[in-house]
């Protein structure tokens, strides 16, 4: 990544790199605080991955007033 990292633009490229480290049955926990973040499910599927959103389970009380700022996902092999 030569430019500044942008989580919305670059998350699939990051998952591509992380997939090489993922063991069979392993899980990537992916979290960010970008408002309005949208997971690229098609991009993940093309990598053979799937995402389960768990944001509500991992939301800190500090962010309870503004749930838009917290995003958390479990990424596994499809």
From TrEMBL:
Gene3D superfamilies: Vaccinia Virus protein VP39. Keywords: Methyltransferase, Transferase. It is an enzyme of class 2 (transferase). The keyword Methyltransferase applies. GO terms for biological process: methylation. It comes from the Bacteria. Its EC number is 2.1.1.-. It comes from Klebsiella pneumoniae IS43. This is 23S rRNA (Guanine-N-2-)-methyltransferase rlmL. One of its GO terms (molecular function) is methyltransferase activity. The keyword Lyase does not apply.
């Amino acid at each position: 990544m030569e430019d500044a990292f942008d989580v919305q633009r670059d998350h699939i490229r990051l998952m591509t790199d992380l997939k090489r480290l993922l063991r069979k049955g392993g899980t990537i926990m992916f979290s960010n605080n970008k408002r309005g973040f949208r997971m690229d499910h098609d991009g993940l599927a093309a990598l053979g991955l799937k995402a389960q959103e768990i944001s509500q389970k991992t939301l800190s009380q500090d962010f309870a007033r503004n749930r838009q700022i917290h995003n958390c996902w479990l990424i596994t092999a499809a």
